[in-house]
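Quick question, first post here. What does this chain look like in 3D?
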Amino acid sequence: MEKFIQVQANIHCEPCKECGARPVIEQIKGQFKVRCPKDKSHYQTKPGLIDINDWNTKNKAHPSLGNKASSNKQAS
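> Answer (accepted):
Ran it through. Tokens below.
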């Protein structure tokens, strides 16, 4: 069984964009990866230092383009 280090609750982490799980830290031979605890195929950071910023950038939910409220307005 794999053992993970839980990210402290007071540190902002975007949930995994694939499944919504909170990321964990995995240690492999002295290097660390931030990854999804449920599936290795979901995004994970490169081995090295703990990079929460990279995780947040890759898992940020992007808002849809266009604004429904402004699309109904007619040009004057």
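Helices lie at 52-59, 68-71.
The chain is about 15% helix and 15% strand.
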